[in-house]
Amino acid sequence: TGGTTGELAAAMDEAEPLGSGWGFVTLLIGVNNQYRGLGLDDYRDDFRVLLDRAIACAGGRAARVLVLSIPDWGVTPFATSSGRDPRVIAGEIDAFNATAHGVCDARRVRYVDITPVSRKHGREEAMLSEDALHPSAAMYGLWTGLALPAARECLRGE
Fold it and tell me: Number of helices (H) and strands (E), helices first, in the chain?
């Protein structure tokens, strides 16, 4: 199972010291907050802390941090079979993503929106692992293609 923002923070605490000279840091977190029904306000608070920690790991250089949006698992066959409403899932994910994007903008961190790709291809068998929920290597490849230009910008600039 994947982690929530709180679980990631706890794992980071356990791994301390993480250091502060990392050349590049990425963050994609929140889908399990939404999946487990955790609140948006808690997500916002936790995300701020995690993003600040990511910036600290990058030596205080926000320009060396890249955040990816939360993919929409509500379009997957797993979601359909679970009986959860895909429109509700989409709305909640949009709210979480808008929150993260706003925090990124305030901290001048690049944000890449992979959610549309997850929605477009999330029903395709080739884009999912055997559990019909988690992304396959092919889906990660699409996301990487979206993130690569922003990652290059992160590595070029300060």
Answer: 7, 3
Please name the amino acid found at residue 87: R
For 7, the 3-state DSSP assignment is: helix
**Phi and psi (nearest 5°) for 112?**
-115, 125
Measured distance CA(104)–CA(47) in Å, rounded? 10
Rg (CA), the chain: 16
Q: Tell me the per-residue pLDDT of 75-94, one tens digit each, with 9 for 90 and over.
A: 999 999 999 999 999 999 99
Residue type, 15: A
Q: Do the beta carbons of residue 9 and residue 50 sit within 8 Å? A: yes
Angle at 143 between CA 106 and CA 75, to 5 degrees: 95
